[in-house]
Amino acid sequence: MTDPVNPASSTDTPAKGLYATPDEALKKVSSEYEYWSGKLTETSLQMCYAIIGANWAVFGTVTGISHNIWSKLSLGMVMVALGSNVVAALRLSESLKKQMDYGEGNAEMWAYEFERSKGKNVAWPFTDAIQDTGKNMRWVKGGFAIAGAVFFLIGAALK
Fold it and tell me: pTM for the complete prediction?
């Protein structure tokens, strides 16, 4: 019989499922998160390039773009998305290098922090700042690319 408080103490046949252990399931969620956040970066960049090309195709010239507020807003959103991607990459790479140097230079503290954070919902081995930057940039990349597309579609429809 299974103890609802401690399912591991079951005397019944172990349940079968997709994952053998909770750690295996957590690693799967983590790998999917990494995959999809990487896909967001790839697709938002591709979308930005497509929006730039679409603006040129629909509005034709610099004059055509400059005389359409929706096209200008569209390209503005795309430029913010592209620029923020560079800023985020710079910030994250520097923050990760700093964390890597800290781990390399403080092996005992790194091991202690590992043990202290094991099984807890904390940012380690990253930092709160690294996690927050990543979270905010996912919203900026996606949000500004989508806004650029919406502004383009409005401008194209009103042309």
Answer: 0.76
